[in-house]
Every structure is written in structure tokens, then in C-alpha cells.
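Human: If only I could read C-alpha cells as easily as an amino acid sequence. Take your time, and here it is.
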Amino acid sequence: MIESLARALVDHPDQVRVERADDRGATVIMLHVADEDLGQVIGRGGRIARSLRVLLRASATAQGRRAVLEIVD
């Protein structure tokens, strides 16, 4: 879900990559984008990043899990 949303936001969708890691009972989703697309994923004042985190958290909670989104430069 996060990958498809990020691909829709950026100018270089082919450079979007998502990695998943488990850490102490939580799933950590690491979102990698091109350097020039970083601002588009974070958004003005971090609004888009916050929205992506809310969507991820809601989806994980519905499945009885915990998830965290990290945007990696």
C-alpha cells in the first residue's frame, strides 16, 4: 500500500523501494525514494509523511499488528 501511494506522489516512480524489517514486535517499513523526490513524499510541513504514517498505522491496527514508517534518504 505504501509503495503504491509513494509511486503516485513522486516524479521517479521506478526509484521507489520499500523494505520491511521486524523490530521488537513492530514492523518497520522503510521507504526509499530518489533524492529529488524526498520533498514530495514528506510534503509541506511533513503533512504527506504524517498522512502515510496514519494510513499505515490504521491498516496495521486493523490486522492486530503495529507498524512504523521510516522515510530513508
Q: What stands out?
A: The two ends are 20 Å apart (CA to CA).
